[in-house]
């Protein structure tokens, strides 16, 4: 069974989260979606990552259709959603461009939509999806407070926030932001370089990692960099008798002391099981740094 | 009448400031300068932005000549000045290169000069003009304290400071820095990108914006970027029935929640009136982001 | 006699430190090494900078061989060492790549090795040599605490840490980090640009400067930049009647208000004496900025 990670004293999530970004592409019936959700819960993956905009504003409802079939499962899971991005979409004809909206009005509307679509009375965690150059952090703080008091959202976090943005919003809140969901993978060290992971460690905040498998870039290995990293992953996979290089990529994140929560994006159960098994893999520091070095393209300084 | 912005509990400035950077170029008699000042006050622009070095060290005196003609106006305005840059100048033959000086001796000399030239007994606000790699923040703090106690300067701020520099100096002071005067415009997002505006929002500090009209780059529209932004400004101007794209550029700043104070640089009263009228313009988020996107050159992430 | 710099209330180091990075290359007998150490102490240079890895893991022992000849000198000096880097080396055949290790196990082993090699019962100062992307700051903090309680290390600092890394580790400690040893020279303004020196000033931490003479780049003057800076150094050397441009480079660091401690790297006593004499040189701000401008390659903004 998967470990859990405490984000606050009374809120924990599973060591791996399942993302439902591409749920609309999986082409499953409501009953099949429910079976997938139940399998996840059986594996110990109880944290389900959504956003208002996923699947062009459709994925939350697809999940909700399944949950409705067995509503008592709600208490066995943590539902995470996001808001703040407005997409150009047939479902939102009033949007002439893609833009951000972190106004009180939009956050509250978006949360209400998410609750309706997900067939739930509360979110366990709401994230601001992107840092908004027009954000009024006082207004966001007031909105979070109201949503908490109304019982609609229990915990709050951010996504893709730089340390300065995390500090700005945190400084206006009476409670801590519990996560920062950012891209981290063997192909993407950006959040190591810009201080984001360090800020998380300073604040004892566990980051969630999107695209933990590099969005497929490693498997295709079209660039010299991807090929170089892949070679190292293959070597370590062999040394550890692992099932796949995907496992090594998960293990690379799971072995980091920041308690990074990888978000599994696949809808195939055998892929998810592979990820769960990766939670058992221990990398030596030297192995971790072989991957780091292959990502850098040169030895450490 | 223009709104005011509280920088501290007992110090407010007008929603727009007037800059006197180019006062020497306006070629006005002392009486004409006085009339311009009186017109500004009538419009509600009471905050006048100076620096020791403007006009090759001459502008403060040109302003002072006018103020002397009607000294009782002093109490109706806020005088802002700056120090810390040393120019190569016939008026400062001892300077062999352009450099910075934030020593106690130089700050105090420069303030005394500003007071003499402006014909005033105090500055409402003194800014360190540029971050100085040779700054001793303890010495600057001690100097600020002394100037405050002597009644020569009532409030202090900085200009063109990065967050790290703002924090360094703030940490040595017993009172808050009340502003950071930086370049912000539809052509210049630097202070969005480097955390400066976020640091202001975190600290509840209203930034002042220099070159709010891009230093004329938009009007000339010589670059592809400038032309692209200008097209969007023209479109929004039309949608809002505004008088000019300058108004849209001011409104873009004034609609930001950080309470950005644009510094009007023109010496022509009809231009200033245009700016004042811009304070009434409300942009939708979508309009604000159309300008943001045109400045980025691509949709938001 | 050289000044001292207080790093904490009860811990001071000399205004210049001596580095033993290249001790293995100096080709000295133990007795000659001892004589060099005694000469340094006579000059007031009492702070000796080591690292586990210097000379491919050999320099600490070479120093210890000399100290053993006159063990009573231990109380007249401050011994600084570092850990956290693992080199590919015949002396560490288990290292397949160069990597970092800031685990409790490695830090403690490395300190024990340093104590044995240096023939001492305590280090005055231990530095983490490089920021480690796999660092667990809580584990490092726990390790520092234990080493302090055991009396093996009296003070702690870091090397080559960015502000975010400095803050991360500091936040976990009950005592302050006393220095950040970074590269600073007339050829290298990186730590001015990235906020590191400002963070030191904010925290009243004196940085130590490695490669204060640019690692020889100025003397060779192979690049246009190096030649440009060298010309300015020569000019100022002449104006001040100094002995060498090396002295001007030291003075440029010593005149900075952050109380930068240059680390002298030469094993030749006349070079060290030159450095000590540089501590008497006062640069004007204008001279300091002539060097700064030559390093920038353009006037200040």
Work out the helix count of chain A.
14
* Strand order in the largest sheet of chain A: 3-4-5-8-9-10-11-12
Multimerization state:
homotrimer
**Distance N to C terminus of chain A:** 39 Å
Question: What does this 3D model show about the protein?
Answer:
The structure is a homotrimer of 301-residue chains. Chain A has a domain at 4-183: NADP-dependent oxidoreductase domain (TIM Barrel). The model of chain A has no long low-confidence stretch (mean pLDDT 98). Chain A has 301 residues and is α/β, with parallel strands linked by helices. Chain A contains 14 helices and twelve strands. In chain A, the strands form three sheets. Chain A has an eight-stranded parallel barrel with strand order 3-4-5-8-9-10-11-12. Chains in contact: A-B, A-C, B-C.
In short:
Chains A, B, C: Keywords: NADP, Oxidoreductase. Three copies of one chain form a homotrimer. The first copy, chain A, has 301 residues and is an alpha/beta fold.
């Amino acid at each position: 069974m998967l470990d859990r990670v405490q984000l606050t004293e009374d809120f924990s999530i599973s060591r791996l989260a399942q993302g439902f970004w591409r749920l609309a592409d999986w082409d499953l019936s409501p009953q099949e979606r429910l079976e997938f959700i139940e399998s996840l819960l059986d594996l110990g993956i109880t944290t389900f990552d959504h956003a208002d905009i996923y699947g062009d504003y459709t994925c939350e409802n697809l999940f909700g259709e399944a949950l409705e079939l067995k509503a008592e499962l709600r208490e066995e899971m943590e539902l995470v959603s996001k808001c703040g991005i407005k997409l150009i979409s047939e479902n939102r004809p009033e949007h002439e461009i893609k833009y951000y909206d972190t106004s009180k009005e939009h956050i509250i509307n978006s949360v209400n939509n998410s609750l309706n679509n997900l067939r739930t009375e509360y979110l366990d965690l709401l994230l601001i999806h992107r840092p908004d150059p027009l954000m009024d952090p006082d207004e966001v703080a007031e909105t979070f407070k109201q949503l908490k008091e109304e019982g609609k959202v229990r915990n709050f976090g951010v996504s893709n926030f730089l340390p300065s943005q995390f500090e700005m919003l945190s400084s206006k809140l009476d409670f801590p932001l519990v996560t920062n969901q950012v891209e981290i993978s063997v192909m993407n060290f950006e959040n190591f370089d810009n201080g984001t992971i360090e800020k998380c460690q300073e604040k004892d905040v566990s980051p969630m990692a999107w695209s933990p498998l590099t969005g497929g870039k490693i498997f295709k290995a079209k660039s010299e960099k991807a090929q170089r990293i892949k070679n190292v992953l293959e070597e370590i996979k062999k040394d550890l008798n692992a099932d796949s290089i995907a496992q090594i990529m998960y293990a690379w994140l799971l072995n980091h002391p920041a308690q990074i929560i990888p978000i599994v994006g696949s809808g195939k159960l055998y892929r998810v099981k592979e990820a769960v098994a990766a939670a058992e893999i221990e990398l030596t520091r030297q192995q971790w740094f072989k991957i780091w070095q292959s990502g850098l393209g040169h030895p450490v300084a």
